[in-house]
Design a protein that fits this description.
mainly alpha, 309 residues
Length: 309
C-alpha cells in the first residue's frame, strides 16, 4: 500500500532531519511505538518478576539501610539477574532498532511501514546482525577502555606532582578534565558508529567487518564528524529527558496507586513512546548520510530491501 505523502530522498540539514523524524513519528506513531514496546514490555515483565515490590516507597527507603545476610544475598542475586537482563536487552536492541530503520525505508520507498514485515526483514539477517553488534560493541569498549586507562594514568601523575610541582599538577588536572570531556564526546559519536554498523549488516547485507568499516568511514570521513557529533549530543540530551519523564510518570503512578505492576507498565509505555522518536531520528540521519554519499544507488538499495521476498 502506498504511503501518503511520500518522503523523498534528499540531503537534509540538521533541522530538517529533526523535522522529518517528528513528522514520521507523528504520522506513524502506532507502528513504530509498537516496535519499541515489543522489546520493553517483556523486559519490564521480567524486571517485575525478579524484584517485586515489598511495599510502598517509604518502606523501600526504610529497608534500604538493613544489612542482614538474607537481604544482602537477595540483593546480590537480583543484581546478577538484572545484569543478565541488561545484556539480553543490549543484544536484542539492534533487532528493534533495525526494524524501525526498515519501517523508515518503507516510507522512503513509498510504502506504509508494517510491523511484521519489518521484523521479518531483520530476522532474515539475524546472524550477521548479532555478530556485527557483538564485534562493534567489543571494539567500542576497547577504544573507550583504552582512553579511560590513559586518563587514569595521567590523573595519577597529577596526584603525584601535587606536592613537589603544584603548578604542573594543576596543568595535568586541567588536561585530564579536557581529556575526560573528549572521551565522553567520543563515546557519544561511537554509539552512532555502532548504530550505523548494525544498519549496514541488515539494510545493506554486509558482513560484520564490512559493516563496521563502512560505519567508521561514513562518520569520520568527508567532514561528517561535526554533524554526527551534533546529532549524537542532541540524541543524548533527548534520551536523558525521556528517561527523566518516564521515571517521573512512573513514580507519580506509584505514589497514587501503590501498585508496582502498574508503575512498571506505565514506565514501559512511556519509555516506548519516547524511545520510538529517538530511534526514528537515528534512522533518518543514517539515510541522510547515505543519500549525500550514494544518491540514486540508495534508492535501488531500499527498493530491494523493502521488496516482498
Amino acid at each position: 500500500m502506498e504511503a501518503t505523502p511520500s518522503f523523498p530522498l534528499r540531503a537534509l540539514s540538521i533541522g530538517e532531519i529533526f523535522d522529518r523524524a517528528v513528522t514520521i513519528y507523528v504520522r506513524y506513531f502506532a507502528v513504530f511505538t509498537a516496535m519499541i514496546f515489543s522489546l520493553l514490555a517483556p523486559f519490564s515483565v521480567l524486571q517485575y518478576l525478579i524484584a517485586p515490590s515489598q511495599g510502598d516507597l517509604a518502606q523501600v527507603f526504610t529497608q534500604a539501610g538493613k544489612t542482614t545476610t538474607q537481604t544482602q544475598m537477595l540483593s546480590g542475586a537480583q543484581l546478577g539477574e538484572f545484569l543478565v537482563l541488561a545484556l539480553v536487552l543490549m543484544l536484542l536492541s539492534p533487532f528493534v532498532n533495525n526494524a524501525v530503520a526498515v519501517g523508515v525505508a518503507d516510507l522512503y520507498s513509498g510504502r506504509t511501514p508494517n510491523f511484521g514485515a519489518a521484523f521479518a526483514a531483520v530476522f532474515r539477517r539475524w546472524a550477521p546482525l548479532l555478530g556485527t553488534a557483538l564485534l562493534a560493541g567489543l571494539m567500542i569498549a576497547a577504544i573507550y577502555g583504552g582512553g579511560a586507562l590513559v586518563l587514569g594514568i595521567v590523573l595519577g601523575i597529577g596526584i603525584v606532582l601535587v606536592k613537589p610541582l603544584l603548578p604542573l599538577a594543576i596543568f595535568v588536572f586541567i588536561l585530564t578534565g579536557i581529556g575526560l570531556l573528549a572521551l565522553i564526546l567520543a563515546l557519544v559519536v561511537l554509539l552512532l558508529v555502532f548504530a550505523f554498523a548494525t544498519y549496514g549488516s541488515t539494510l545493506e547485507q554486509l558482513g560484520a567487518g564490512q559493516a563496521i568499516a563502512s560505519a567508521y568511514r561514513r562518520i569520520f570521513a568527508g567532514g561528517e564528524l561535526r554533524k554526527a557529533t551534533l546529532i549524537a549530543l542532541a540524541y543524548i540530551a533527548l534520551q536523558f529527558g525521556s528517561l527523566t519523564v518516564s521515571s517521573v510518570v512512573a513514580i507519580v503512578v506509584r505514589l497514587l496507586t501503590k501498585l508496582p505492576v502498574l508503575e512498571i507498565a506505565v514506565s514501559a509505555v512511556a519509555s516506548s513512546v519516547l524511545t520510538a522518536f529517538l530511534t526514528i531520528l537515528i534512522a533518518v540521519y543514517y539515510y541522510d548520510v547515505r543519500t549525500r554519499a550514494e544518491g540514486l544507488d540508495l534508492e535501488v538499495d531500499l527498493s530491494r530491501l523493502t521488496a516482498t521476498p
